Amino acid sequence: MANKISTTKIIRNFERLSTFTNQVKISLINTIFSKDISNIFDSMTQLQQIISTYSFSSKDRFLTYVKIDTQSDPKSITSPSTEKQKDLALLLVNELHDLGIFNAHTNEYGYVYAHLESNVSEEIPAICFCAHMDTSPDCSGFGVKPIIHENYIRKDLILPDDPTVIIRLNEHPDLQEQLGNDIITASGNTLLGADNKAGIAEIMDAVAFWQQFPSVQHGPISIVFTPDEEVGRGTDHIDIQKINAVYGYTLDGEKRGHLENETFSADGFTIKIKGISQHPGFAKGRMESALKIAAEIVSNLPMLKLSPETTEKMEGFIHPIDIQGHVEEAQIDFILRDFDTLKLIEYGNLLKEITFNVLKNYPNSTANFIQTEQYRNMNEILKDHPLCISLAMDAMKLAGLTPETTSIRGGTDGSRLTFMGLPCPNIFAGEHAFHSKEEWISVQDMQKATETVIYLANLFTSNFHK
Predict the structure, then answer these.
(1) Could you tell me the CATH number of the domain that includes residue 358?
(2) Which 3 state secondary structure label does DSSP give 443?
């Protein structure tokens, strides 16, 4: 334990130093952490040869996982929010046991934990790979029927169970890069579940690789599969001490070669309205309907800005997601999103201002406000951990990709894990058009994600292995 702690301190101290010297190239990092950099490149060449002989299993695993309904429920107060998420958790534990990872287990909250022991003699800190099991409440995940469109030829994909669902090439520009690849979609009635069962399949494929080729060096590796990420509760009951890693990586991103190191900061915002109820036959001049007040508040939101449908790139928004109530009481729930955390306060103040202006016409009604932190932009922390980013970027290069750091207009479990002390950027998983019936993924992109995980673990180990 003492050696692990001291190694972690070395990493952190090096990262603090690098923040004062601008970008530190990975070659310099390798020189600091390895006495013989040429050995690293020799090792990577050998690893590339081994990977070229490997039969990837991510496709078959993925086709199995997506048929299990794991949709989460934002209205549930249980953990996990739906018991059916545990069906996938149990399957994953059994598969890990079959691969020889006998410490794999799940718990009452539906988390799956597994730990691969180091196969090198030096004390090396662990890294963690993470994905989530639930699918979005926005679209049905029951009865998913995956379809493989082999040798894609750049055309629109018409889904057979509902021919009105068409994955149009001009609306999905990343399909332009998939010529000759194998595209997996759902059948038209459901989402596919690539978000995030692709990440699970890719991590499981990497575990199968390490077990098949024990000569490939790696340090300790923690594997975590979480429930309820889609409803913002994926890390509510996570055990950071059990993970015991210095860096984490979620596999929950979109385009191949992308590494997401920046997310939205996110708050929830609730307006609780108390109106005046009267018998509708005798209500003139007396009734003040809380439902009508709620409707006016929503109708007074900015029309041409600050909404999901009018913003892109680094622009934030205010988004009403639910209205409930009756004449006497009503409630509006919003989500607030921006890359600049301070703007969330501005958005909350704007909602208060809109509400008070509406209430001027309802003198006997009142409103209360609740603003709740959900997650924060992980770049606020990751900017101080350049090694975490550089290793992932170099791993993608070794997999034959052109890496690019990007921002995600959303959040991941990694957002919260980063603020819990585990720096955790998001590696691509190949997911596209998630939360919709048009969701798709490429088999070849999944394989590249698995390669990236394998190279990353080996590269991290090589920096410490003498």
Answers:
(1) 3.30.70.360
(2) helix
Token pair belonging to 176: 């332009």
Amino acid at 138: D
- Contact between residue 332 and residue 322 where contact means Cβ atoms under 8 Å apart: yes
CA angle 427, 115, 125 (to 5 degrees): 70
The helices-and-strands tally (H runs, E runs) of the chain is: 13, 17
Same domain, 230 and 127: yes
Overall number of domains in the chain: 2
134, 202, 338, 413: the catalytic one is 134
Residue 398 clears pLDDT 80, i.e. is over it: yes
Q: Which domain does 285 fall in, by range?
A: 265-375
Give the contacts of 342 (CB within 8 A, at least 6 positions apart).
Answer: none
How far apart CA 257 and CA 404 sit, in angstroms, is 6
pLDDT > 70? residue 16: no
CATH number at residue 449: 3.40.630.10
Could you report the per-residue pLDDT of 193-211, keeping only the tens digit for each?
999 999 999 999 999 999 9
Look up 296 and say whether it is catalytic: no
Terminus-to-terminus CA distance in the chain, angstroms? 19
Of 229, 230, 252, 260, the catalytic one is: 229
Q: Is 229 a catalytic residue?
A: yes
Supply the pLDDT for residue 110. Answer: 98
Written in H, E and C, the secondary structure of 29-96 is HHHHHCCCHHHHHHHHHHHHHHHHCCCCCHHHHHHHHCCCCCECCCCCCCCCCCCCHHHHHHHHHHHH
**Chosen domain end from 324, 343, 375:** 375
Using DSSP, state whether 184 is helix, strand or coil: strand
Angle at the Cα of 53 (from 50 to 59), degrees rounded to 5?
115
Based on the fold, state whether residues 389 and 283 are members of the same structural domain.
no
The two structure tokens encoding residue 248: 């984490």
Which pTM was predicted? Answer: 0.86
Give yes or no for residue 379 having a pLDDT over 60. yes
Quote the CA–CA distance of 122 and 33 in Å, as a whole number.
13
